[in-house]
Amino acid sequence: MKSIVLETKALTKTFRGNDEKALDRVSLRIPGGCVYGLLGPNGAGKSTLLKIITGMVQPDEGQVLFKGQPWSRQALAKTGVLIEIPPLYGNLSARENLLVRTTALGLPESRISQVLETVELTDTGKKKAGKFSLGMKQRLGIAAALLSEPELLILDEPTNGLDPFGIQKLRSMLREFASGGMTVLVSSHILGEVEQMADHIGILSGGVLGYQGGMPQKGHLEELFTKVVEKNRKGEWQA
């Protein structure tokens, strides 16, 4: 049995001015060397959960554990994160963007060429990141997250806005990461993509983790997702 790399215990969060809980006692268990798909409709609490895991938001209750130990700066150093829009400098090239980060984090410059090759951005030259396609920006954001050679990679809705070719490339990349021993946590509301890339899934709806476990048999994910969402939804999808 694979060891648990990331675990949350009864995470609860309520934002000021909102009577409903954004997260209600959410307990994840994510094995090492897998792609874990965190599924849920818009407004389910996925981004809030990821921000708590990465220390960007503090929970009202609960705990985050990395390899069995309470979350710390040391754990964050072993984690690569891309939440929402890639934090890029539009007036800098791909290499220059990564140089800013390696300098700030005290990482060797040699990592820049390595991660650019990993995400297939070695031929962008002096082209400014502001001129990149959305798919290229996403890959550069992932490259930045990989600079520290993380054991855990966390991506929030990484396929948003990508064309089918870009989605396929991203899917293959994440599978390769997991095959190499990295643990990948991906949030998404696109069932078909998660079904093709994830080993384990959690379904979040109304701030409640309604299901956690292995991927159901092919063709049954939508049925499971619908059942969980209908049971726990509090306002997702409402305009």
UniProtKB/TrEMBL annotation:
<keyword id="KW-0067">ATP-binding</keyword>
<comment type="similarity">
    <text>Belongs to the ABC transporter superfamily.</text>
</comment>
<feature type="domain" description="ABC transporter">
    <location>
        <begin position="6"/>
        <end position="231"/>
    </location>
</feature>
<dbReference type="InterPro" id="IPR022501">
    <property type="entry name" value="ABC_Gallidermin_ATP-bd"/>
</dbReference>
<dbReference type="InterPro" id="IPR027417">
    <property type="entry name" value="P-loop_NTPase"/>
</dbReference>
<keyword id="KW-0547">Nucleotide-binding</keyword>
<dbReference type="Pfam" id="PF00005">
    <property type="entry name" value="ABC_tran"/>
</dbReference>
<dbReference type="InterPro" id="IPR003439">
    <property type="entry name" value="ABC_transporter-like_ATP-bd"/>
</dbReference>
<dbReference type="GO" id="GO:0005524">
    <property type="term" value="F:ATP binding"/>
</dbReference>
<protein>
    <submittedName>
        <fullName>Lantibiotic protection ABC transporter ATP-binding protein</fullName>
    </submittedName>
</protein>
<dbReference type="InterPro" id="IPR003593">
    <property type="entry name" value="AAA+_ATPase"/>
</dbReference>
<keyword id="KW-0813">Transport</keyword>
<dbReference type="InterPro" id="IPR017871">
    <property type="entry name" value="ABC_transporter-like_CS"/>
</dbReference>
